[in-house]
């Protein structure tokens, strides 16, 4: 009897100790893998499934939850520069459980095909996103489009180019405008150009201090992440830095840099603008520019919030988006009639 009890205790100890040791080992030696595992776990908890769709030989990777036959329009979420579909996890957490939501990896990011410069310009990304929309049948009825930063630039130009696909749109701190006031990030870029240090792009870190500086730029509220978590984030980014630089140089080229500015007057869908007042990447003064160009647009300025609205104020962002959709009262055919 004592032998059996001892065996049971030994098995129980192994069951408890092995996962703890494995977690500790991953945290110390492979923090990047642990971060990926954590995102997988969060997606599972939120009911998001990772899927793939194709347009010819071009592959898109996305996560989704729910079905498009619900009472509210589907949501398509476009992330920003050097992020991925997982940047939306904090926002999805606060969306209604029955809301159909689709988060796609933008061209070249994460699981979506990495091709060449033609796909990385803003118009190139707009074309690819439209292919994605068609590949999953999202355009069978008008949907609500959300884009942040670079994804906001793409979303705004998409709204101007394919108005019949949308019922409404939310732009969060979008790029692509003429900002009356330079942000800290833009001021630093101008200094780098003067000193011919174009390789030192603040949004493409290659060391832990540079990563901490990038996070400070993007977030008004300090994240205070453990050093190993920072190391994991850097480990996951570093292999992609060559692509990030190629993409960055493409979206700051003349044909892409002011894409939203040049197309915003063509936006006919109801527009919601969300911006953090303390944005150090793209100055909040751009919000007034966009609001003035699109009559009837709704502007929401978030106090004590920087550029990363989805990270700093996810509950607020989710509630604002759903309240805006509810306020429109669209039926499925109204947007197509309006366009």
UniProtKB/TrEMBL annotation:
InterPro entries: AB_hydrolase_1, AB_hydrolase_fold, AB_hydrolase_sf. One of its GO terms (biological process) is acylglycerol catabolic process. Signal peptide: none annotated. One of its GO terms (molecular function) is monoacylglycerol lipase activity. The chain crosses the membrane at residues 12-35. Belongs to the AB hydrolase superfamily. This is Monoacylglycerol lipase abhd6-A-like.
């Amino acid at each position: 009897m004592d032998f059996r009890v001892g065996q049971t205790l030994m098995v129980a100890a192994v069951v408890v100790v092995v996962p703890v040791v494995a977690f500790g080992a991953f945290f110390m030696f492979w923090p990047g893998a642990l971060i990926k595992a954590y995102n997988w776990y969060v997606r599972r908890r939120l009911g998001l499934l990772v899927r793939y769709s194709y347009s010819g030989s071009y592959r898109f990777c996305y996560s989704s939850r729910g079905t498009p036959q619900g009472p509210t329009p589907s949501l398509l979420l476009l992330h920003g520069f050097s992020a991925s579909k997982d940047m939306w996890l904090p926002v999805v957490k606060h969306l209604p459980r029955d809301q159909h939501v689709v988060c796609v990896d933008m061209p070249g990011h994460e699981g979506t095909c990495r091709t060449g410069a033609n796909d990385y310009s803003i118009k190139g990304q707009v074309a690819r996103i439209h292919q994605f929309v068609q590949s999953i049948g999202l355009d069978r009825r008008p949907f609500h489009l959300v884009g942040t930063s670079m994804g906001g630039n793409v979303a705004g130009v998409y709204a101007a180019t394919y108005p019949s696909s949308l019922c409404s749109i939310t732009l969060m701190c979008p790029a692509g405008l003429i900002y009356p006031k330079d942000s800290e990030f833009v001021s630093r870029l101008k200094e780098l150009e003067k000193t011919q240090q174009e390789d030192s792009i603040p949004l493409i870190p290659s060391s832990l201090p540079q990563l901490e500086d990038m996070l400070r730029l993007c977030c008004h509220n300090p994240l205070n992440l453990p050093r190993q978590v920072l190391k994991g984030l850097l480990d996951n980014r570093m292999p992609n830095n060559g692509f990030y630089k190629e993409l960055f140089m493409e979206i700051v080229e003349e044909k892409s840099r002011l894409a939203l500015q040049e197309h915003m007057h063509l936006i006919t869908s109801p527009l919601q603008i969300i911006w953090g007042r303390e944005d150090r990447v793209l100055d909040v003064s751009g919000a007034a520019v966009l609001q003035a160009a699109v009559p009837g647009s709704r502007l929401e300025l978030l106090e004590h919030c920087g550029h990363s609205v989805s990270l700093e104020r996810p509950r607020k962002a989710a509630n604002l988006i759903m309240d805006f959709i509810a306020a429109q009262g669209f039926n499925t055919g109204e947007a197509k009639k309006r366009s």
